[in-house]
Amino acid sequence: MSSIRDRLVDNQVKLNPTDKEISSVVEDLRSGNAQPEDIANTIYKILSNELSDEAQIASFLALLSSSGLDRKPAVVARCAQAMRRQASRIDQQSLLNIVQSRRGEGSYHGGFCDLVGTGGDGHSTYNVSTTASILASSLVLISKYGNRAASSNSGSADLLQAIKPKPPAINSVTAETLPRMYERSTYAFLFAQAFYSGLRIVAPIRKKMGSKTIFNLLGPLTNPIHENIEARVVGVAEIKLGLLFAEALSINGARKTLVVCGHEQLDEISCAGKTSCWRIVERPNPAFHEPKSDEDKDLATNDEDGRPRTLVDIQQFTIEPSDFGLQRHQLSEVSPGKNAEQNAAILMRLLRDELPRDDPVLEFVLLNTAALFAISGICDGDTSDMGHGDNGKVILETGPGGLRWKEGVRRARWAVESGRALASLDAYVEASRTMEENLR
Questions:
Q1: 19 SS3 class
Q2: What secondary structure letter does DSSP report for 173?
Q3: How far apart are CA 214 and CA 62, in angstroms?
Q4: What does DSSP say about strands 141-146 and 229-235: parallel, antiparallel, or unpaired?
Q5: CA 255 – CA 246 distance, rounded (Å)
C-alpha cells in the first residue's frame, strides 16, 4: 500500500494553468466546450483576487452549475486542487516527522485523520462530526477541517467557540503553528478562514447569488493538509453526490476513505435507518513489478512498464445502526440544540460521561466515531491496549464493507468512559490558548 510520502510525491497538483480569460471560459461553458483545467484555473484566479468583475465571476459560477460540469469528478477534483494551491503553505516535513514519531496500530500507520461533511442537509441535527472527531482524537491524530455555520444553527467553529468555561482559540492554529500544535495535542481544528484568505473574496458574491455553487462541494475536499490525511470519513447531503465525491477524492490521491449519506439525505451516518457508503479501497496490483534500479525505489509508484504499484476500487454498500450493535433513533431525537451554546453544553455532558449509555445523541456520535476508527485501520488488530479501562477484548466480527464496525463502537465508548476524549479536548484548548498568548 502507498505511504503518505508516496502520495506526496505522486499527487502533486497536476494543473496545467492557462492564461485563458474568464470571458473565454464563460463562452466555453455556454457552448459546452469548457475544459476542466480552464475551469480549475479560473477558480484559482477567483480565490487569488486576480479577477475583479463580480458580475462576471457570478456568471461563471452560475453557468458552471447549470452546465452540470460541477458534478463531474474530473472537474471537482481539479477545482479542489486549484483551491488547495491557494491555501497557506504548511511545512510538510514537520508533518511527516510528527507521523513518523507515532506508533501505529492494526493497519493504522499513525497518520492524520478527518471527519467532515458538506452540510446543507436541512436537518439541523447535533454537531456529530465535530464531536466524533474529538472522541477519535483519543486514539488517532485528528486534523478536523471546518468553518462557521452556513445553513445550520451551529457549525464546527461555532460549537468549539461556545465551549465553557474556556473555549479554544481556533484562530491560533495556522499554517505556521500547526506542527507545534501536534507537539502538545492529538487534535487540531483547521479553521477554513485561517488557511484560505481567498474565501473572503468569494463569500459576498455567493451570498448575492443565493444559490448553490461549486464552492458548496469543495469544502470537504480541501483540507489544507489533504495529501497528509491517512484516513477520512466524508458526509454528503445528497445520495447522488456519493459516487462523485468518492471518484473526485480518488483522483486526488485519497485512500482509506469512506463517503457516507444517510437515506434521509443526511451528511452523516444515520442513527435513524440506512446509510449508503462508498469506500475507496487500495489493493496491490498483481501485474506490478519492482523497478530494476534501487535508486529512489521507496518513492516508485509505477514499474518500468508504467504499471501502477496499486489499484483503486470504489466499493458501494449500505450500513445501519444494527451493524454497529446499536439501536435506531429518530432524527427528531438528535436535534436538541437550537444554537451553538446549547450544543456545546451537550458536548461537555457527553465528554464527562453524564449521558445514559443509550442516549440518542451519544449513540449518534458513537456511530460516526466508529466509522472513522474502522476506516483508519486501527480496529484491524487482534489485540488492544488502549489504556485504563480497556479490557483488551477485540470484537473481530466484520460487517458490510468488511469493516469492524462493532469494534469501532467499543473503542469510541472507551474514549468517553475512560475520560480520554475529554482529556484530548482539554489538551487542545490549552495548547491553542497558549499559542494565542505567544502570538500577541
A1: coil
A2: -
A3: 9
A4: unpaired
A5: 10
Cα gap 149→337, rounded to integer Å: 13
pLDDT 10s digits, 96-137? 999 999 989 999 999 999 999 998 767 778 999 999 999 999
Q: Where are the alpha helices (DSSP H) in 221-288?
A: 242-251
pTM above 0.85, yes or no: yes
Triad 140, 91, 75: Cα angle to 5° = 80
Query: Which residues touch 75 (CB under 8 Å, ≥6 apart)?
Result: 36, 39, 40, 69, 214
Helix pair angle (128-136, 405-417), 10° resolution: 80
DSSP for 298-349, please give it. Answer: GG--B-TTS-BSEEEEEEEEEE-GGGGT-----GGGG---SSHHHHHHHHHH
Task: Tell me the residue type at 403.
Answer: L
Cell of 199: 474565501
DSSP annotation of 12 = S
d(C-alpha 16, C-alpha 313), whole Å: 27
Give the CA diameter of the chain.
64
Contact between residue 321 and residue 266 where contact means Cβ atoms under 8 Å apart: no
Three-class DSSP category at 278: strand
Write the burial class of residue 108 (CB in 10 Å: 0-12 exposed, 13-18 middle, 19+ buried). Answer: buried
Percent of the chain with pLDDT over 70: 91
Q: Is 149 left (phi over 0), alpha (psi -120 to 50) or beta?
A: beta
| Angstrom distance (rounded) from CA 295 to CA 285 | 21
Distance from chain centroid for Cα 386: 24
